[in-house]
Amino acid sequence: MNKKSIFILALSLMTLTFFLTGCLPISIPANKVYVANMGDNTVSVIDVSASNTITIIPVGNKPIAIAVNQTTKKVYVANLLSNTVSVINAFTNSVIQTIPVGNGPDGICVNPTTNFLYVSNHSDDSVSVINLLNNTIVSTVTVGNYPYGIDVDKTTNMVYVANNYDNTVSVMMARRIALPPR
Fold first, then answer.
1. For strand 136-142 and strand 84-89, is the pairing parallel, antiparallel, or unpaired?
2. Most buried of 35, 59, 116, 157, CB within 10 angstroms?
């Protein structure tokens, strides 16, 4: 695969991720795209302006979804079969923490306004709510049958979860906490 096809693939995956989850796996200021590679349990970091792969980062088992926090420059990867979220530092492109979540995490979304991460867990019909100040689960919310897509409206702080098997949408009000001073 040449640089041009990697770039097109990255943009295609980014567009597909946007349509499936509403969360783009891109860090706009640094012109990086983070792509989950389920087949080899890695995340590719692609430089959009140079159309090449910067690095490949090992993560958990079957990475399936990615969310980027533009405020903290952290990348969050839902690992489907290891029931974890890998936290990547976007400056060093390395995993700095692994957070255990519910069973079958397959959707992920970050709200930099409230400093929370939301992870849909399809095997136990729940959403893990993670405080991004300390990367701990503060709540596990039961939602509909087989939650698959998740997104947050950063204006209203409402979280929307698409439940695949019962054709419903669960709606949650997001919490708000302050970032520590820089």
1. unpaired
2. 59
